[in-house]
Design goal:
Protein name: DUF429 domain-containing protein
Oligomer: single chain
Order of helices and strands: EEEHEHHHHEHHHH
Largest sheet: 5 strands, mixed
């Protein structure tokens, strides 16, 4: 079944410590060709809790596909555990609840999970040993790499600007809080009607928009509008958004097209076990 949506929202996420996060951007568009618009935060800069509250409210207003750019679960299949040797749940929704229960970080943060509660599983630098020993990936990430997309980051690598670890575990807390209101694919089946949350990877949208591999960032209006044109979107008017805003705008436009492709909703390697444990990045087939 190919679900039908009236609106498409892409959220560039952040796992940074604190309450206000300049790295979060939310873009929303409807069916058609209108350029996605950036949604302003309630007090000018988004918090993660404000995003969760906005999502629940927006999901009730119209059937909306929400995309978040973080890993919805750690790898499970290859090692048969999220955190081998530690007694934690073995299916994603229960694991999200566990992460939320042990983290008292402000604004749905999860840095304490990496830095103290399960420190030995994460790479913070040379003192932790050989970095390659921490580079475990999900099946969908291996699939993306095998198809020429490039190797993605892993939630166990907590060092450097490109790390996704803190954002992903903070995101899992957010998923736990919104799941009672909005289903989350593929852990939940696609609904016959209504809204849905999916994991996205902004680089997939950028490649579909004609951006070269390794150069997904758009630094000026010409690059942004060229990408939007490739996706059948009207151009962006007004001031050039920052990197996060540009990524969200282009990804929302891509989601509007991609949601109509039935192949993206039934990846060949997405088994029921993977759907329960690791999930899948929408757009990888």
């Amino acid at each position: 079944m190919t679900p039908r949506f009236e609106r498409f929202a892409a959220i560039d996420w952040s796992g940074a410590k604190g309450v206000r996060h300049k790295g979060i951007a939310v873009a929303l568009c409807e069916e058609g060709e209108a350029v996605p618009r950036l949604i302003a935060a309630p007090d000018g800069i988004w918090s993660r809790r404000h995003v969760a509250d906005w999502l629940v409210a927006a999901a009730a207003q119209a059937p909306t596909l929400f995309g978040f750019d973080f890993s919805f679960a750690p790898p499970f299949i290859t090692r048969r555990a999220y955190l081998p040797g530690d007694p934690v749940p073995e299916e994603a929704p229960a694991f999200w609840a566990y992460v939320d229960a042990i983290c008292d970080d402000v604004d749905l943060g999860a840095a304490s999970l990496l830095e103290s509660a399960h420190r030995r599983h994460f790479y913070f630098g040379k003192a932790d040993g050989v970095k390659a020993a921490f580079l475990h990936h999900r099946i969908c990430e291996d699939r993306y790499n095998a198809g020429g997309g490039g190797k993605l980051s892993t939630v166990y690598d907590a060092i450097g600007a490109a790390q996704v670890a803190k954002a992903s575990f903070a995101g899992m807390r957010m998923l736990h809080h919104v799941r009672d209101h909005v289903p989350i694919w593929p852990f939940d089946p696609c609904p016959a009607a209504g809204s849905l949350v999916v994991e996205i990877y902004t680089s997939i949208a950028a490649r579909a928009a004609g951006r070269p591999k390794g150069r997904s960032k758009m630094r000026d209006a010409q690059a942004l509008n060229a990408a939007l044109a490739m996706l059948g979107s009207a151009p962006h008017a007004g001031a050039m958004p920052d990197d996060h805003g540009a990524d969200a705008i282009v990804t929302a436009a891509w989601m509007r097209n991609a949601a109509r492709d039935p192949h993206l909703w039934s990846p060949a390697m997405l088994t029921p076990e993977i759907a329960r444990t690791e999930g899948w990045t929408f757009g990888i087939v």
